[in-house]
Amino acid sequence: MKIIKTIEEMKERSGRLKRERKSIGLAPTMGALHEGHLSLVRKSVQSMDKTVASLFVNPAQFAPNEDFDSYPRDYDRDLDMFMREGVDIVFMPERNTVYPAEYKTYVEVHDLQEKLCGLTRPIFFRGVCTVVLKLFNIINPDTAFFGQKDAQQGIIIKRMVKDLNLDVRIKILPIVRDKDGLALSSRNAYLKNTQRQAALSLSRSLREAKIMVEKGEIRTEIITAQIKDIIEYCPEAKIDYVKIVDAENLDPLDIVRAGTLIALAVYVGKTRLIDNIIL
Ligand code: AMP
Description:
The chain is of the alpha/beta class. Helices cover 39% and strands 19% of the residues. The chain has a 6-stranded parallel β-sheet, with helices on both faces. The mean pLDDT is 98. Adenosine monophosphate (AMP) binds next to helix 2 and strand 5.
């Protein structure tokens, strides 16, 4: 496994792979790896000639009041995990080479970036899109792998790829959960014991919503109220949003239909957790 830290070397490497007609898969991550990340890497290793995993905690997607400084980092462990999965190249650039002091350019996907998570995290998706487009330009992947865990992110990246005519296929892979149902997240490391119990209300409420729909309930107002009840029952959980929306344009729906997205964000203590389900 090759570890590449400079943009020049990464471009040179991916250029060479292209000339050799090797297909390149990319799995972008911020590290603190778990099975969710590894599911992306595994899919790439299985289906592409070469797999690049990126490891970069992207400052542009954190607001000043958010957890950029305290975000969990354990690069030795991450590199070891990537190596075991058969990753060919880990791209881990330095912050000041990705965003030098004179940096000025950002990518925005209007409308979609303002909804759901964008309401509480107004600069988040612009930071994500900017770094993802930079990674695409530097690595030139044929396919990039993202997780359904970040549903809105996947929808926005697909939009950016279409709107900017990028030659990269976007694959969204299912949410990987712990045995108790909690969606894996690097931020779960922040949760203390009792908080983890409260965190389970996210997946529990989504499972309950799915059962309601299977039993015939289609009114989103009723389903939303039930989800909120389940979460609010936990004193440590504070709802940011619960939304039932169209899975392409993220517009709210009155009635659920096939492919509808239920997405939610909840604070457990100071930790903001997200989860979702597609019906
Ligand atoms: P992050 O390191 O949090 O930026 O996540 C990197 C990628 O891993 C993103 O595409 C996420 O959607 C994906 N991911 C994170 N958690 C999970 C999970 N529990 N299941 C599937 N994919 C995930």
